[in-house]
Amino acid sequence: MNEVQIITNGYKKQFIDEILNGMEHFLDNSQLMELNKSLNHHTNNLTITEAPSNIDLDFKKTNQILIKDFLKHKKLEGLSPRTLNYYESQLNIIQKWTIKSFIEMNADDLKEYLTYYKEWHNCSNTTLNNTRRILSTFYKYLENEEKIIINPMKMIPSIKVPKHVRKAFSDEEVEKLRMTIPKLRNPIRNMAIFELLLSSGLRLSELGGLRISDISLPECKGVCMGKGHKERVFYFSEKAKLNIQNYLNSRIDDKEWLWVSGNAPYNKLGISGIGHLVRQWGVAAEVHNVHPHRFRRTLSTRLIKKGMPIEQVSKILGHESLGITMRYIETDKELLRLTHQKHTN
Q: What is the pTM of this model?
């Protein structure tokens, strides 16, 4: 009988836990308990010796280096810290799951992982496809860096996801929000945020990063840091201008940020705080599916309906291509018909 080498008792526990985790979807709780007893019993007499080399840990070190280098590369491309953290968390999950280096993994390994991920996390196809896209981006990077010859993700197709109708706010919903927000806490600040969201098409990250110095009220425009750390100009309505001016006149702090909390020490109102605030508006106004991104869709829909060329709408939204802008209006068949008529007649 060959001697089985185990580095530590902690490793033995990890070894057993990994087997139990792998069998969790095939056995019920009582069967898992019996398997656990059996594994512990049959590993009691194993010789615990020092491993002759650290070869078992080499693939983990390799994977950690690859992830670190990948994140550095993506940071240079201008990805936000939030996106980088999401990439890292997803790659760390597969790193813990696999017993190979990323370079050694093939298409079958990755398909097995995606199957495991869906079952273990009980996630939707949309979430699963997001994970697949992250792996595709990661392996494309490895391919470009010539760390792999064959990209295994090229053999894994996109996962079909249900298409949800993404609607803009109706005029009635906008007015319900406009009438409700003044009745809530911090109405002056919140009305300024509402009118700016409605008329500027700012992304949540762009809105949350604004400083007072970024805004030019006389010109009804401002400067924000868009995707990829690219600076872009945005515009807003006279209503937004008046509400922002009222808000700034009400401020008694000396903070540089445009949006701050309502009480001392008047900390910056972050992205998550604004997102939570906007969702609260929807609950109070009894308007469903209220979130910051829906304001962008509403602005694009309104501008197209009023006859603005889609090329200009794309620039206002800060999109890199018309294809991205078309996603904002493709669910509105009547809007597409009007756009088609405008550009063909």
A: 0.63
